[in-house]
Each structure stands twice: as C-alpha cells, then as structure tokens.
Here is the input.
Amino acid sequence: MAKHIFVIGGVLSSLGKGIASASIGFLLQKMGYKVAMQKLDPYLNVDPGTMSPFQHGEVFVTDDGSETDLDLGHYERFTGLSTNRNSNTTSGVIYENVIKNERKGEYLGKTVQVIPHVTNEIKHFISKLAEDNDIVITEIGGTVGDIESLPFLEAVRQFRLDVGYENSMFIFLSYVPYIHTAGEVKTKPTQHSAYKLREIGIQPDLILCRCEQELDEEIKQKIALFTNVNEHDVFSAIDVSCVYEIPKIYYQHGVQSRICKHLRIEEKEVDFIKWDKFLTNNKNPQDGTVNIALCGKYIDHKDAYKSVVEALSHSAAWNNVKLSIKWIDSEANYNEQDYKELLGNIDGILVPGGFGIRGISGKINIVKYARTNNIPFLGICLGMQVAVIEFAQNVCKIEDAYSSEFDENCKNPIIDLMSDQKYINGLGGSMRLGAYPCILKPDSLAAKIYQKESISERHRHRYEFNNKYRSVIEEFGMKISGLSPDNLLVEAVEIKDHPFFIGVQFHPEFKSNPETPHPLFRHFIKAAKK
Ligand code: GLN
Here is the structure.
C-alpha cells in the first residue's frame, strides 16, 4: 500500500510549496523509495495551457503531452522522475468529470454534491498514483482559508480516514515573519493558519516554517504548543539563495527522519554525491562568468521562462562557470547599434519559446546580431522559428519571409500552421504536445552534442517549418539537422559556418536537471564559455 504525503500551505502564497514538495520527494527517492508526485490546483481552468504567463508563469509540458503547472518542473528537476497526466489536476477537470458522470446518469438519481461526489473524484485522482508507487506526494495549491481549495482539503481529510494515520502525513508549510520594528519573529500567522486547518478537520503532522533565519528552540516550542504538533516536528525552512540547497538543509535538520518515523518506513541513506557536485560548482564556480542574453517579452515575469533559466543554471555549474543573465525586452525594438552597446560583453544569446507577434521584430534583430557576430545562439521553439525567418529574410533575401502566426496572408510563410492544426477549434490542449521522436543528421552539430541520432523531446507548438523552403534554406547554408522520423517535420536547424547556432522546434529545457544537465544547454554554455 502506498504511503501518502500531503503538502498544504498556510498564511500566504509563494512560500515555495512546490520546492518543499520536490525536496521531500528528492530525499525519499534518494533513499530508494518509488516516489510519485502530483499537484492539485484549485482554479477552474482545465489546465494552465490557456493562461497568460503573467498569471501563472511557465506552462510545463510532460512527456505524455499534458500542459501543467510549473511546479511539476520542480518535481522533475529535483527527483529526475518523469511526471505525467496523473501528476496535475484542477478544479476545472474535477468538476468537468463530475458533470460528465452526472450527464451519463452514473450517480443513479442522487443529488450531486461537493461532498461526496466532488471529493470522491479528487480522492480517485490521488489514488491513481498509489498503484505503482511506495510514496505519493500531493501538493495542494492555494493557501488554507481560500474558498476554492476547500473541496481538496476536505478530500484529503477523508483520505486519511480511508488509508489510516500511519499511511498518510500532512505537512504544513507556513510563514514566520521577522518584524523589524519589533525586532522579533512572530508566530501568530502560523498559529492562525493551523487553527484554520484544524477547523476543516486537518491536524498538521509536521510544520515547515519559512523564515529569514533559523528559529530558536523557544519559538519552535511555542509553535508546537499552539498548533498541537510535536516540537520535534517543527522545522525552520530558511530563505536560501539557491533552491537546490533545500533538500540538503531539510536533511541536515532531520525532516526525513520524522517523515519516515510517521509513515513507519525505514530511514535509508541519502546519496548526495552528484547533487553536492552541482551545489559546489553552482556556489563557487572556478572558470569565470558566462553572460547570456535572454530575449523575450515577459522579462518582468521571469517565471514565464522558469525551466529555461533552471536549465541554464544546471549547465553553468556543469561547465564550472557563474551564470549571469541579461534580460532583453523583445518589445523594446533595439536597432543594431543598440544591440552593440547592450550586448558588448555577451557570450551567448538565447531566444526562448513564445506566442504572438508582439516582440517578433526585436527577436529577429537579436538573432541577426548573434548570427553575424558569431555569438553562440540557442533558439527554442519560437526561437527557432524566428532564426529561420531571420535567415530567410537576410541571407536568402526572401524579404517578406515570415510566419503565418503573425500575418495570415504573408506571401512567404516560411513558418506555417501544421496541416493537422488547420481545422482545430478552441485553444485548450490542441497544440502538438508532448514527447516526439526526432532523427538527427549524423554529421550535424546536434548529433555530436547528443552523441546519438535518435532523440525524444517535448513539444508545444502549432506552427512548423514550411517544407517548401527546405531547399532554398539549405542552399544558403542553414542545415536542417533534425527531422521527425517520417521526414515531414523540421525539428532542428543549425548554421554550418558559425561557432554554435542551433534552433530546435522542441523544448529541451523541460528535460534538464542539476545532476544531468541537458546536452544542448551544456554545449551552449560551453560554446559561450569559449
Ligand atoms: N507560437 C509558436 C507556435 O505555436 C511557437 C510556440 C512555442 O514557442 N512554444 O508554433
């Protein structure tokens, strides 16, 4: 029978429940347990795929093509596991299922209600991961006290009754602020959030207190007393500069021992060898700094590029260099001279994925700068499409080469809607999503980097390279280095006479982690370091 850990947040949002859950997952998985992770999101969207990055940061894509919350990225990066469609759900999906069942007549004439029908549907979702795993970690989105997360909290309250105390654990991530004017930390917000949780019928088993500095024993005892938790189960979760330090900090405090004790499982050794190597290089890189320009339109909402930034940091540590990112606003529309000034000390340029025409000319200009100044370039998804457009316009001299995403009537749509996207109605879950195989040309830089010719990467796009333009592009020196196995879709391009210029239609950033940085990022940083 699987053991269940529920991670619940108190006081305020943005405390890092995703990172806390991922860190716990890391420790248990490194002990050799089979761990699965999932997130329950209380909002009514069916998935975050249709949300603006302003709202919800990056949309993380799984191998099986689910568009999910960015916390799943943390789960994968910390545990090295692959998440799937059972790793994220929302109130939208839960209600959609309940209503479908009701229409089918499956509730046999009963009045359909939040309890038990909605809560049963939530419990059913949680149980899906229990089958093949030792431990299921379920993060509940939102904060205690939110109206919309109530059905989820009620469902996990019931879940404990179903599986028993020692098979389930409630971990409460709370906040203990330091009040500068009073010169002391305050436990009241945590006390009140824990009352609120108990009001719903959930008694936390362990509390992680987000705080600026380690809490002293007296404070922890006070929190324990007022929240009805054993004082050995109250931990400081201090602010850190690098989130990957957190599993180690939990470990040093003994969080894993208390979890194992509660769940009646053996506490085994945690192997930190590879992780420590990453942390050491990340903290004290020996080979200088690499300056990377990242050009997008959400530079004030960096969560929109979460996995890209993480992948860069994994590879910087791998190359033993410090990563410095210069954010370039694609909508600022800098000219060549501006770029010369802005990018004077830049070692590499990355254009990530994106949607819509805003900022496109800025992206085209920066790609041109990378290409003509021999600066290592990595273009991801839209970044690749823009690289192809730039090359077609400026090298092949097809001046009106463009993407039909930005101008439906453009005469030379070198990037065009994929044929199977032409008749799709509705935006939700309808892109080319998830992992697809790709065959790399044996003599390409990409094949050299991956050290294999057959790869699998995750996708999220509607548009593709227009095959009509393959020969002209290749004639002028852009190499098509990766294709779908049926040869129909261009998945990767590169420029031969350039130190490092690669564009990929997929999202390599989703498959990078500190222990195994993604090869494309590793080599991009390596080229930039040179
Ligand atoms: N907007 C482009 C498309 O849909 C690129 C998508 C992306 O960068 N994820 O094809």
Observations:
- The mean pLDDT is 96.
- The chain has two domains: 3-271, 285-529.
- Residues 353-355, 381-382, 405, 460-463 surround glutamine (CB under 6 Å).
- The CA atoms of residues 42 and 146 lie 9 Å apart.
